[in-house]
Design brief:
Structural class: mainly alpha
Radius of gyration: 20 Å
Largest sheet: none
Shape: flat
Strand content: under 5%
Length: 218
C-alpha cells in the first residue's frame, strides 16, 4: 500500500527519484519478509512506463537503489551476529519454484477469501471498463495499474499456489479501489442489491474465519 502511494506520487514526473526510491524501498522491506514480493518489480517498472509515465534512467536507478537499501542496512547486523548464511539462504529462495498448479496447500478459508476477492475485483473491473470514459485521464491510468497488478497476481497464484498468502494480500489492496469505484458511482436498484450481497458475504466470511478450527472441521 505504501509502495503504490509513492508510485502514484511520481505520475508523469520522470525526475521524481525520491518518490520512486521510497516506493521501491517499501518493496525491499517487504521482500525481507517474503522474498517473492520481488517478482512484482518488473510489473511495477512496466506500470511506470505505460500508466504512471515516470520511467527514466534516473527513476530506474532510484528504484534499484530503493530495493537494495534495506539489505545494505541489515547486512552489517547479519555479519556481526554470524547470521549471514541464513540471510543468503533467504535471498536464494526467490530462485526456488514449487510445483505448478499444486493447490494442495491452499486451505478452505483461503479459497473462500480468494473467491470473494476475485468476484469483487471482477465486478469492479467490469464496471470500470464500462464507465472509464467518464473518469479523468489520470484516474484511468491509475486504475489501469490496479487491474494490471491484479491480473498478474492471479496468474502468479495459479502457477505457484504456495504463495497464496502473499497473493491474497496484494489482491485485496488492488481490488479495494476497483470495488470502491463501483460502489461510489452506481445508483441503480441492481447495483444496490449487489452491494448488499457483497456486504453479507464479507460479514459471513469474517465470522467463518473467526470460528475455532474444530467447528470449521465439523
Amino acid at each position: 500500500l505504501c509502495s503504490l502511494t509513492f508510485l502514484f506520487k511520481s505520475y508523469q514526473d520522470k525526475a521524481s527519484a525520491p518518490a520512486i526510491f521510497t516506493c521501491f524501498f517499501c518493496v525491499g522491506v517487504a521482500s525481507m519478509l517474503a522474498i517473492h514480493v520481488l517478482i512484482y518489480v518488473p510489473v511495477m517498472w512496466l506500470s511506470m512506463f505505460f500508466f504512471i509515465q515516470s520511467l527514466s534512467f534516473r527513476t530506474l536507478g532510484a528504484s534499484i537503489l530503493g530495493i537494495l537499501a534495506p539489505y545494505w542496512f541489515i547486512m552489517p547486523f547479519m555479519v556481526i551476529n554470524n547470521r549471514f548464511g541464513p540471510f543468503l539462504q533467504h535471498i536464494s529462495e526467490i530462485t526456488k519454484m514449487g510445483d505448478l498448479f499444486d493447490f494442495s496447500s491452499v486451505t478452505l478459508s483461503q479459497w473462500l477469501i480468494l473467491a470473494l476477492v476475485v468476484i469483487v475485483a471482477a465486478i469492479g473491473t467490469l464496471h470500470y471498463l464500462a464507465s472509464s470514459y467518464k473518469d479523468k485521464f489520470r484516474t484511468r491510468q491509475l486504475y489501469g495499474c490496479f487491474i494490471t497488478i491484479d491480473i498478474f497476481t492471479l496468474l502468479y497464484f495459479i502457477l505457484q499456489p504456495q504463495h497464496v498468502e502473499t497473493c491474497l494480500q496484494v489482491l485485496i489492496v488492488n481490488s479495494s479501489p476497483l470495488i470502491a469505484h463501483f460502489i461510489a458511482l452506481t445508483r441503480s436498484r441492481f447495483t444496490n442489491v449487489v452491494f448488499i450481497i457483497l456486504l453479507v458475504l464479507t460479514f459471513a466470511l469474517t465470522v467463518f474465519n473467526l470460528l475455532p478450527n474444530h467447528l470449521i472441521t465439523l
